[in-house]
Amino acid sequence: MNMKDFVGAIERSYEQMEAIIRSLPFGTILTDLDQTILFHNETVQKIFKRPADGINGEVLTTYVDPNLLDGIAEGTNIHIDFRGHTFVLRKEHTTINDQLYYVYLFSSVKGLEEILSASSEKTELLETVMEFAFDGVVMVDKDGYITMLSKEYAEFLNVRVEDVIGKHATDVIENTRMHIVAKTGKPEVADLQRIKGDYMIATRVPIIKNGEITGAVGRVLFQNVGGFNSLYKRVKLMETELKKYKGEFREQNKATYTFHHIVGDSDSIIKAKHQAERAANSDSNVLLLGESGTGKELFAHAIHNAGSRAPGSFVKVNCAAIPPDLLESELFGYEEGSFTGAKKGGKKGKFEAADGGTIFLDEIGELPLHMQVKFLRVLQEKEVERVGSTTSKPIDVRVIAATNRNLEEMVDKGEFRLDLFYRLNVVAIHIPPLRDREKDLGQLCLHFIEKLNPIMKKKVDGISKDAQRLLHQYKWPGNIRELENVIERALNMLDNGTVINSEHLPAKLTDTPSNHSVELLAVSIEKAEKTALMNALKQTKGNRSKAASLLGISRSTFYEKLTKYQL
Predict the structure, then answer these.
(1) Residue 558 in contact with residue 530, Cβ under 8 Å?
(2) Strand, coil or helix: what is 193?
(3) What is the pLDDT of residues 98-111, one digit of tens each?
(4) E-strand spans in 210-254?
(5) What is the set of domains in the chain, with CATH numbers?
(6) pLDDT value, residue 273
């Protein structure tokens, strides 16, 4: 390195280190290997009682005993007497462009020892300060306007230093918090910051002069763009490994849907959505009632995502899918050695996994009676006890349960505990079946077509009128789930067409008359009876005895049919 490059490197380091050293609460001096003072802060000026820049260029041994300086080991503290006071002196080294320099820290005995030992956070902050000169640095004034930007940081941001000086930090740096630190005076150490689609690690500290916040200085964890990209790749590799081992947990414990995913404008579904939106604003237990396939899980996702627990876990449990002998350990977890085959170290259960979030218990009506007792205790005491443990752990969980069974009838039969029913039935929401949402049928069909088109590489854009008629006359016992199944089947039956026709629908929708002839006859008879009763009453001007006589039936039979048809 020639002298020009050497000096340039030092000057750039001064520019970056100046703000950091000035902001430190103790005296700081930067020297070369000959202990010539290159830079110091105001605290040093006060200790040595010299004017600004008065000791730059002087040798530190002028003020401190050379034997002490030569004898101090790096990273250790010694006590020195100076001008009638006792100070702690600490020596560190730093490397700038492969050149070695010394950093000396001066403080009162109490001051430096507190900084170095009072808390790990302060110690970590001090260690990071020693590395500031190597990295991209930005400095702002108290209002958040940039006063200095290092060359490394400018290269990473793809800007010119001279163009951004004087601009507000938020106009130059994505997701910056420099202006916030300059306002609050609170340091932020090792904070993740996303810039240009990548993550970097930023540390920000306030600049304090005479007890007042005059700005802030921040650094990023890279020496140059290449070094940062290398670090980013390593982080991404670790993230990939983490997903490999924990991907299943994260996938199963995340709420995917919101209220925007609930399709439909019918009165019944709008009513259910409004009830669910109100329930999302509280932590009360929710009970979702409805037939299989109506979308109860979708509502559970939406309630969680719309509430204050959205950042927490959303743990799904299908009570009917877990064998009864495994249900307790799955829900509550177990300790090591609690039974044959128990994992080393034990395992936390679903309730612990949902701590701070929501647990969704689907098919709650299938919960065995002995498990209902344990579950009730969790709801009442807000604590869970693992299998094989003698202690309980407090948990903070919001419960959303769902069932397609009539729990009140189960309570009457002794199949479901009454006290548990009341605990769950705080906010009950009935999800309507598809047969009560005929207005939504066309909208739902188009929704599923749009959803399945890219997956199945199709270009379907509609349904023929004949196919629509068949869809509307079907009763949909499987509800929304069955409708999606029918639409997916129809797309599979299409070759290159863009419209779903009746021939693409399953036989259960197209072969309706022969399967329901008896039912249709009964309905026709009832309609005929009702019409005859109404005509007879109309002809006799409401005289029921005469009407019965006209119809050729007894008065008692006539009254029975009036009651049946509510006439």
Answers:
(1) no
(2) strand
(3) 678 888 888 765 54
(4) 212-220
(5) 3-112 (3.30.450.20), 120-223 (3.30.450.20), 254-432 (3.40.50.300), 435-511 (1.10.8.60), 521-565 (1.10.10.60)
(6) 94
